[in-house]
Write a structure and sequence with these properties.
Elements lengths: L2 H5 L3 H5 L7 H10 L1 H16 L3 H19 L5 H7 L1 H22 L1 H15 L5 H29 L4 H8 L2 H13 L4 H5 L3 H12 L6 H20 L5 H10 L1 H19 L2 H6 L1 H7 L5 H26 L5 H25 L10 H17 L5 H9 L6 H29 L5 H21 L11 H5 L4 H5 L9 H20 L1
Main location: membrane
Membrane topology: Multi-pass membrane protein
Protein name: Quinate permease
Amino acid sequence: MGLLQKIVRNEATRSDPPEIYNARVVLISFVACGGALLFGMDMGIIGGVLTMDSFKRQVLAFGAPLQDSLLTRTSARQYGLMDQPKTALANLESNIVSVIQAGAFAAIGIASSVNPLYVSENAPRGIRGLLTGLYQLSIVTGLTLAFWINYGSLLHIEGHSQYIVPLSLKAFPAAILFVGMLVANESPRFLAQRNPDKALDVLARLRNLPADHQYAVQEMEGISRQLEEERALSVNASGFTLLKEAFTVKSYRRRSMLCITLMMWSNLTGTNAMTYYSPRIFASVGLSGSSTGLFATGVYGIVKMVSCAIFIVFVTDTLGRRKSLLWTGIVQDLALLYVGFYIRFDPPVVGESVSAPGYVALVAIYIFAAVYQFGWGPVVWTYSSEIPPARLRALMMGMATASQWLFNFVVAKATPSMFATLGTNGFGTYFVYGSFCLVMVVFAWFFVPETSGIALEEMDALFEQDSLKDRLVFRKGPRLSSRESADDEVIDKKDAEHVEVA
C-alpha cells in the first residue's frame, strides 16, 4: 500500500490498483497549481508593500498632489498635502489593489478556472478531492511565502528595493507554471476528443500501468462513453443555448445560482480584506510597527496554510460539505464580532503594550483564518466543481470563477473606505463582515444540500427535488438516470417552444 492510500482511505483507494496513486500525478497537480501559488503571492505581497515607508514616500508623494491637481484648484495643493494624507493613502491603496485585480483578470483569472478542471481530469478517482484541494492549499502557501518575503525585505533591504524585490519575486511561480506546462501532458479527457489513441497512452502513463491493462482500458472506455453522451446532447447547441439552459431548466438553475452565490459568500467573509490589509488589521488590535505587523501577518499565513493542509488531507471527504459551511460560518461570525467590539469599546493605545483583550482579539483573527480553511475556502471550490452536469460543467465553473473574481475586486475596493469611514480604527468593518458570515450560515442551512457521498451521476436527481426537506434528506440510491431526467426537461422545454412558435 502506497503513502497516498495510507493517508486517504475510501472504497476507491482500497479497490484500485496501487500503481495509479503515484508521484507523477501528484507532481502534475502541484505544477498545475502554480497559478494558484501566483494568486496567493499576488494578494499577500501587495498588502505588505502598502505598509512600507519606502513605498509610501515614493508613491504617495507623487499621488497626493496629482489627485489634488485633478480635483481642486492649484492653490489647494498645499492644503491637500498637509491635511489629507490618510484620505489619499486610502484612495491610493484601493486604486493599487484595483489595478492588480485588473491585471490578474487575464492571467490568474484564466488559471483559476482552468487549473482545477485540469487537475480533476488527470486525478485518479480516489484522491480527486485531495488533488483538487491543492488549488486552495497553493493559494494559502503563496500567501504565506508573500508574508515572510515582505517581512524579510523590511528587515534586510533598504531603499526602493525594499518593495521592488517582493513585487519582482512574483515572477517565479509564473515561470514554474509556464515551464511545467510546456512538458506536461494534455489531460486524457481533452485528448480523447481529438486523438483517442494518444489519450490511452497518456492515461496509462499517468496511472503507471501498461496501455493494455484492464483498469486503464476501462477508464478510457468510460471517458469515451461520457464524451459520446455529451456530444449527443450538445448537437447544434450554441454557447447562448447552453447559457439559456443554465438558467431556465430548474435543476440547472439551482446549481448555477449556487456556484455563483457560494463564491460570492466566500469573499464576503472578509478573508481577502484580512489578506490584502493584514498589517493594518493587526495594527488596529495594538501591534504597532511595520515589522511587528508583518511578523504577525506571517504567522497568519502559516495558520491558514497548516489548517488548509489538515482539511484537504484528513477532513474533506469525511466531515461533509454542508456541515463544514455551517459551523465555520458561525465561528467566523463570532471571531469578527469580538474583534469589532474590542476595537470599539477597548481600543489599543499607541505606545502602550497590548492588553489581554487585545491578545484575545489577535487569537480571534487567527481562529478566523483557520476555520475559513475548513469551510468557505476549499469547500466552495469543491462544491462548485462537483454539482454541475457534464453538459454545463465548464460553463458553470466559469461563472463560479467570474463570481469569485468580481467579489474579490469588490472587497479589495471597498475595504480601505470602510476602514476610513466605519468608526475609530474601522471597527464597523468587522461588524459588516461578521454580519455577512451570519447571513451565509442561514443561506447554507436553507439552500445548500449535502453532496458528500453522492455520485456525480446522482446530482441531477438531488437538485430536481422540489422540496427543501427532500433535498436535505436525499440519499444515494437507485434513481432515474440524472441525464435522462435533466435532459427530459430540456426536451420538454424545446418541444414547448416549437409548439408556441407553431
